[in-house]
Design a protein that fits this description.
8-stranded parallel beta sheet; globular
């Protein structure tokens, strides 16, 4: 049970204790800056009950010493936190099937629990990608395919001050295509049928900023795939707050480690509507 007096994990109140299958909070690990083990340990010791997963984003695990990775994964498992790779597995597909199998075995030895696979970056046929999802599952690891929705920039409202009824010059149409969301959902459904454990939705052009959230796309994805089988990237506190207000505490979110406590307050039934009165502005020493 939680050691925090204001927080308790009951299924009828918020969500159950770890390991959870919904209401998951996954945090960003080493990426642009090197995380020290002391920092990670402080996060796990102080907020470990609120952290479900740790992601090595941007292929950062490929640049770090294996001994360091193993120590981090062991520390995470000690606090019942799963560890996942970031968008790197797809780069191994260039080297063929045997290299990908070796990569999976190495990840397993290093203590990774989940392999994230970017389904749109390499242009492989759908059947080939589904085969890799099955390989991940057969290797004893969890599979988390990642999808991204590309929208035309001119279709996203511009947030700027302007006089009432004043004319705003339309933004020029970009060369980016508008992806068929129904096709994306169908591919995600096939991944789930192949054994995928979770579908990751990239924040670009969907939920990167709270003032340009594509609520229509998000509602369609959740409506078809289900709240428990999808995870969304929330790159700032306002976006996290939008998700909690729209879909409640059971939504799965990928956030920065500095947002964990505020997000947990939002998830809580008693504090979620007015969490700023409890914590004030977000300020953490790390």
């Amino acid at each position: 049970m939680s050691a925090f007096a204001w927080k308790s994990f009951y299924e009828d109140e918020d969500r159950p204790e770890k390991p959870r299958t919904y209401g998951v909070t996954e945090v960003r690990g080493p990426h642009c800056s090197l995380f020290s083990q002391n920092l990670l340990e402080d996060i796990f010791e102080s907020m470990g009950e609120f952290v479900d997963g740790l992601k090595f984003t941007g292929g950062s695990h490929s640049l770090l010493p294996k001994t360091y990775i193993r120590e981090v994964t062991d520390m995470a498992h000690k606090h019942n936190v799963y560890v996942t790779t970031g968008d790197w597995a797809e780069h191994m597909l260039r080297k063929g099937l045997s290299a990908f199998k070796e990569y999976l075995e190495e990840c397993k030895q290093l203590g990774f629990d989940t392999i994230e696979l970017n389904m749109g970056s390499m242009g492989f046929p759908e059947e080939t990608l589904l085969r890799y999802v099955r390989l991940i599952k057969n290797g004893g690891l969890r599979a988390k395919p990642q999808f991204a929705v590309k929208t035309n920039k001119s279709d996203i409202p511009v947030n700027r001050d302007r006089a009432f009824e004043s004319y705003v010059v339309p933004a020029p149409r970009s060369s980016e295509f508008i992806e068929d969301v129904d096709l994306l959902i169908r591919r995600a459904e096939r991944c789930l049928e192949a054994g995928a454990d979770m579908i990751m939705i990239d924040g670009d052009d969907v939920c990167r900023q709270a003032d340009s959230v594509r609520a229509d796309i998000i509602a369609k994805i959740i409506g078809r795939l289900g709240l428990e089988r999808t995870m969304f990237e929330a790159s700032n506190p306002k976006t996290s707050e939008w998700f909690i207000k729209q879909y409640g505490s059971k939504v799965n979110l990928f956030v920065d480690h500095s947002q964990v406590m505020d997000l947990e307050c939002l998830r809580g039934r008693n504090l979620g509507k007015n969490h700023t009165s409890v914590l004030g502005s977000s300020h953490f020493p790390f």
